[in-house]
Amino acid sequence: xxxxxxxxxxxSAAAMTARVIVPIAPPPVIVEPPAPxxxxxxxxxxxxxxxxxxxxxxxxxxxxxxxWPAARWIPPRWVRxxxxxxxxxxxxx
Length: 93
Prior knowledge:
Layout: H1 2-17, E1 42-45, E2 48-51, E3 56-59, E4 62-65, E5 73-74, E6 77-81, E7 84-88, E8 91-92
Antiparallel strand pairs: 1-4, 2-3, 5-8, 6-7
């Protein structure tokens, strides 16, 4: 049983780190004016395009509570690579 769980975890980790190369450039980013902040500990995370396997789909921006007081949000982005575009996820630093 432990062996099956280990294999399942390894497959899940590999799927999370797999990079899909999209041959089509993403559309221009939609600039959304943020709604008023729900509080002082929130950060606006701008919208971005995700690839759904057939086309780009817009994910709207939202307010997110900071995970720690000095946290900064680095937004996700699309990066040109040989053969197309790859998605680089956003992260807190």
